[in-house]
Amino acid sequence: MARTLTVAESQRFLAEPHIGVLCVERDGERPPLAVPVWYHYRPGGDLTFFTGTQGRTARKTALLERKRRLSFCVQRPEPPYRYVTAECTLRALDRSPSVEDVHAITSRYLPDDVARDVAVAEATGGSPTFVLFRARPDRWVSFDFADETD
Questions:
Q1: Could you report the per-residue pLDDT of 29-67, keeping only the tens digit for each?
Q2: CATH code of the domain covering residue 121
Q3: Which structural domain, as residue segments, surrounds residue 19?
Q4: Which SUPFAM superfamilies match (predicted)?
């Protein structure tokens, strides 16, 4: 039988290196924008993620700046299925993120030397393209289907 994760379990699961799906409300009658992103999270802290190479002009950047709210979902796509969604308030954005902030994210997905090179190039390249976002998880929605696969 599926069960809801505790907040602590949800935080630990979000801290694992999954691909996150960022969802932000749009204006008008279109459905919310949902896009995959790399991210970093430590239990009890802020969720950080950045927009990609078109960060400064990306639709998601403009929507996040205007709406200041987002949902962020991660999942385990193979059995036993599990997902966590954090409903968040945007706390800050940084148009010139530091090497450390970018590296904290890229190192979860790339070999460390490559992750460091990406972070250094972004932070010192003269024309940053990433916008780093910090969001506070306010509410958790989760399910763990582990008992159903036994």
A1: 889 999 999 999 999 999 999 886 555 557 888 889 999
A2: 2.30.110.10
A3: 7-148
A4: FMN-binding split barrel (SSF50475)
